[in-house]
């Protein structure tokens, strides 16, 4: 077997709208292509020996052991690799269950699809599954050591990718509330929401967390001085920088017992408590110096350690933190008890699980000695032996929820303290013998105020009620159900995507909002180009959604991006599907128009239930997508007699219709006439039907998002098929004695669309400079030739500089073949070089003629036109509508339209 390609999907995709995280592996079975598993000697036995847990896979039989039943009866190796890859991730602690295996049109080549939680782990699992299966085929077994290494590697990937329990709690709460989130590229930042409505977090610090509050909380001595001045009970203490000052500091705080800790430490690092003599004090000083140059010496207060969590000025959770310890059973040594305790599946390394494994350090051995024990001591049943002096969970401690026990006065004090320091989220360390009584009654103190406090002790306490502290954070960041999203509109189709995207963005600009949009020629925010290039994939979508100035996102979603990576967002408010026609067939295992329609239907399906799918009623494959989506449906049509649209409107739906020369919105009993097509520059004076269809789709999408008819009309009137607004899309130039048209038509549907305009040119000869991308099928080039023969009076066939792997000259020959099949005596010639071909067409243009250039490089074609001298870019327009016509455009119900549609 051989892996040909591995792709990572990160959003709604061709394989699943709901399962966003998928690995797609293109697998060549090679000599196993026609060999089912039951014909491979010993394979079943070897697979069961290696992975007996596959017994739990149901598969198509729908019962326990169903998959192994398929293996025993005979199934293809691609299917087996899918299940093995999923099981390897399960064994490493990543719970995944979705998989698909489909044979491609290439014999013996399969697409194996597996779910992942971590990208690196998912890709690794796919490769490991192939190795495992190949090993069993070749040797009858997969070495146990190799399997153990695979699982360990997968565990390492999963651990390294962990965001930590606090961040995980926040993400889970965001997902529960439907708030989108994404990881940013630096400093472990998490973005919640999109565009202008986004909030950012780093651990449990938010973009509302004040830098002064953080700085003050990190300076423990300064915090203590501020709180003491405010009348808050805090430990008596001082700061020193040299060992020579330690003895005097101990006397200042009142003598032993004392606490020594670093001035700017965290997570309990470098802290030693309950120090009772000079030898311990010296050792504690040296430990603290490993963390900080300045050292705090404090009086040690007897009591239990509590963490009080304050969010947005309110106490939301309280936990007692118990230091790492073991409980005797009367027979095991302390070392054995530690080992047994660390076997708890809830304990992990660092912060990757709700509890941390117990590890011993210098203070642990001192504490053991103080309690009269060694690691070999056997504790009596029920006897507690503490192994850490500090109660941090990161050193193996546990947490007990005390939220319902804290005294009201302590709640008031904690909330006052956090406001005094200036934090939106803070954790107060409180030492008291009884949290249910006021601190002053029991000689309790507030030891520290922590910025970015951990949540795991509250989210998953060892004892007591888990507290939804992340919910309090969400309430603070998005109060009163404030929106976390921005309007997101996604556009796909075979032709017209870029024009419709730009037009829709332009219409939205009439609302005064900042619009971010992606197209095949670049990514834009407002009036400015952010990044040039074909930017229709997830990365470009993320750029827009991560920008804090963007108020509306309009995203072109091309087939390539969806296939390679999925959509770059969970769902849209509006999904527009313009059309589906033959293009790029045979690429990416999309071989038929129906498969292409299924791919593009991802945009129609990935819409919020209260959103809209804007569908082309005149394209049966697009119209059929209404059955797949859970969103509302809105149709657009060039046919005012459309039966589908008539029924849709009768049922209360909304549609955009081209009727009596108008672009109109029809809803209920009302027809809102937007504008005459001939007054819309994009439609080339009403002579470009496909541009009218694009304008209908954009207008309808804006309308269902509550953009007013007046704003839509203003957008349509001021948007032109020009180099500045739609480069390479019906750019018409007046060269004095003739005109030149540049359009990036490159498939049969776009040739036909351009042809609809060109056939209306009746003032002179029509010359076509034609070609097509090299990665198309032979029959596609023949079709282009046939269409060109029917459109142009004279044809110049050229080839792209980048033949995309096709032998040079092949494409032009096939186009010529199509031309001569339609017109054996056609006036045509082949000029391979695009620059020469364009210049020849421009040179031979007759008076009042039209030269249509369908280039590989739009910018090059436009430059060649402009060097001809005084060139005027223009669009044919009619006169401004009369006052009466304008009055009839605003919500009037013309009987002609109502009678036709209703």
Automatic annotation (TrEMBL):
InterPro entries: ATP-grasp (IPR011761), ATP-grasp_RimK-type (IPR013651), Cya_phycin_syn (IPR011810), Cyanophycin_syn_N (IPR044019), Mur-like_cat_sf (IPR036565), Mur_ligase_C (IPR004101), Mur_ligase_C_dom_sf (IPR036615), Mur_ligase_cen (IPR013221)
Keywords attached to this entry: ATP-binding, Ligase, Nucleotide-binding
Signal peptide location: none
Compositionally biased tracts (Low complexity): 878-890
Domain (ATP-grasp): residue spans on this chain: 224-478
Coiled-coil regions listed: none
Domain of life: Bacteria
E.C. code: 6.3.2.29, 6.3.2.30
Region ranges (Disordered): 878-902
First-level EC class: ligase
GO-annotated molecular function: ATP binding; cyanophycin synthetase activity (L-arginine-adding); cyanophycin synthetase activity (L-aspartate-adding); metal ion binding
Composition-biased stretches (Polar residues): 891-902
Catalytic reaction(s) noted: [L-4-(L-arginin-2-N-yl)aspartate](n) + L-aspartate + ATP = [L-4-(L-arginin-2-N-yl)aspartate](n)-L-aspartate + ADP + phosphate + H(+); [L-4-(L-arginin-2-N-yl)aspartate](n)-L-aspartate + L-arginine + ATP = [L-4-(L-arginin-2-N-yl)aspartate](n+1) + ADP + phosphate + H(+)
Family statement: In the C-terminal section; belongs to the MurCDEF family.
Function recorded in the entry: Catalyzes the ATP-dependent polymerization of arginine and aspartate to multi-L-arginyl-poly-L-aspartic acid (cyanophycin; a water-insoluble reserve polymer).
Oligomer and partners: Homodimer.
Name of the molecule in the record: Cyanophycin synthetase
């Amino acid at each position: 077997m051989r892996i040909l390609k591995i792709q990572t999907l990160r959003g709604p995709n061709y394989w699943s709208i709901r399962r966003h995280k998928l690995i797609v592996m293109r697998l060549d079975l090679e000599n196993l292509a026609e060999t089912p598993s039951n014909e491979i000697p010993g394979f079943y036995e070897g697979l069961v020996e290696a992975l007996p847990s596959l017994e739990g896979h149901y598969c198509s039989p729908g019962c326990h052991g169903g998959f192994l039943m398929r293996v025993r009866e005979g199934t293809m190796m691609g299917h087996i690799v899918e299940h093995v890859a999923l099981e390897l991730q399960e064994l490493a602690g990543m719970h995944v269950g979705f998989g698909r295996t489909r044979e491609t049109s290439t014999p013996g080549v399969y697409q194996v699809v597996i779910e992942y939680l971590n990208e690196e782990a998912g890709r690794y699992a796919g490769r490991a599954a192939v190795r495992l299966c190949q090993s069993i085929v070749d040797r009858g077994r997969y070495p146990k050591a190799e399997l153990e290494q695979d699982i360990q590697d997968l565990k390492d990937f999963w651990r390294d990718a962990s965001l930590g329990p606090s961040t995980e709690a926040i993400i889970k709460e965001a997902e529960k509330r439907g708030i989108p989130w994404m990881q940013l590229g630096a400093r472990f930042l998490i973005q919640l929401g999109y565009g202008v409505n986004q909030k950012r977090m780093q651990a449990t610090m938010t973009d509302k967390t004040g830098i002064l509050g953080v700085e003050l909380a990190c300076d423990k001595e300064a915090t203590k001085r501020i709180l003491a001045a405010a009348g808050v009970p805090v430990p008596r203490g001082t700061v020193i920088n040299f060992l020579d000052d330690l003895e005097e500091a101990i006397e200042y705080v009142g003598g032993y017992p004392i606490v020594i800790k670093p001035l700017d430490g965290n997570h309990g690092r470098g802290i030693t408590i309950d120090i009772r003599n000079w030898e311990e004090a010296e050792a504690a000083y040296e430990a603290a110096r490993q963390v900080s140059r300045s050292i705090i010496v404090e009086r040690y207060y007897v009591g239990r350690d509590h963490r009080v969590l304050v969010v947005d000025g309110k106490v939301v959770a309280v936990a007692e933190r118990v230091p790492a310890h073991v409980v005797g059973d009367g027979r095991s040594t302390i070392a054995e008890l530690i080992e047994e305790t660390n076997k708890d599946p809830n304990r992990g390394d660092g912060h990757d699980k709700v509890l941390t494994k117990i590890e011993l350090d210098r203070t642990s051995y001192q504490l053991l000695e103080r309690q009269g024990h060694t690691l070999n001591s056997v504790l009596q049943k029920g006897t507690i032996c503490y192994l850490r002096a500090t109660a941090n969970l990161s050193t193996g401690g546990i947490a007990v929820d005390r939220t319902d026990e804290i005294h009201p006065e302590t709640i008031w004090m904690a909330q006052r303290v956090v406001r005094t320091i200036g934090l939106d989220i803070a954790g107060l360390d409180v030492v008291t013998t009884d949290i249910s009584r006021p601190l002053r009654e029991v000689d309790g103190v507030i030891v520290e105020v922590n910025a970015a406090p951990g949540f795991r002790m509250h989210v998953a306490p060892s004892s007591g009620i888990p507290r939804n502290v992340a919910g309090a954070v969400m309430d603070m960041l998005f109060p009163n159900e404030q929106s976390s999203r921005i309007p997101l509109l996604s556009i796909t189709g075979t032709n017209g995507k870029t024009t419709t995207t730009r037009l829709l963005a332009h219409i939205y600009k009439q609302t005064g909002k900042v619009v971010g949009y992606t197209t095949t020629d670049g990514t834009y925010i407002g009036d400015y180009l952010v990044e040039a290039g074909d930017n229709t994939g997830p990365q470009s979508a993320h750029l827009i959604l991560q920008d804090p100035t963007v108020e509306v996102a309009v995203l072109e979603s091309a087939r390539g991006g969806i296939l390679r990576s999925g959509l770059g967002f969970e769902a849209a408010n509006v999904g527009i599907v313009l059309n589906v026609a033959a293009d790029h067939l045979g690429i990416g295992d999309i071989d038929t128009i129906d498969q292409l329609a299924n791919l593009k239907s991802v945009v129609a399906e990935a819409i919020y239930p209260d959103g809209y799918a804007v569908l082309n009623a005149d394209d049966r494959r697009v119209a059929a997508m209404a059955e797949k989506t859970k969103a509302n449906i809105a149709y657009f049509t060039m046919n005012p007699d459309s039966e589908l649209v008539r029924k849709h409107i009768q049922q209360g739906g909304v549609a955009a219709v081209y009727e009596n020369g108008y672009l109109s919105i029809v809803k209920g009993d009302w027809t809102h006439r937007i504008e005459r097509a001939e007054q819309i520059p994009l439609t080339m004076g009403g002579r470009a039907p496909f541009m009218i269809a694009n304008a209908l789709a954009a207008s309808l999408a804006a309308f269902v998002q509550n953009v007013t008819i007046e704003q839509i009309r203003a957008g349509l009137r001021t948007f032109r098929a020009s180099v500045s607004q739609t480069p390479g899309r019906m750019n018409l130039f007046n060269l004095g004695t003739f005109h030149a048209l540049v359009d990036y038509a490159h498939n049969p549907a776009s040739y036909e669309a351009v042809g609809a305009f060109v056939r209306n040119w009746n003032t002179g000869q029509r010359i076509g400079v034609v070609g097509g991308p090299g990665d198309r099928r032979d029959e596609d080039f023949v079709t282009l030739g046939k269409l060109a023969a029917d459109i142009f009076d004279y044809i110049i066939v050229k080839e792209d500089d980048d033949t995309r792997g096709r032998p040079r000259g092949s494409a032009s020959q096939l186009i010529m073949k199509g031309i001569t099949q339609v017109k054996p005596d056609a006036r045509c010639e082949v000029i391979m070089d695009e620059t020469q071909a364009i210049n020849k067409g421009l040179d031979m243009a007759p008076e009042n003629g039209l030269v249509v250039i369908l280039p590989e490089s739009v910018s090059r074609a436009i430059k060649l036109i402009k060097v001809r001298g005084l060139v005027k870019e223009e669009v044919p327009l009619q006169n401004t509508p009369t006052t009466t016509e304008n009055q009839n455009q605003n919500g009037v119900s013309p009987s002609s339209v109502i009678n036709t549609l209703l």
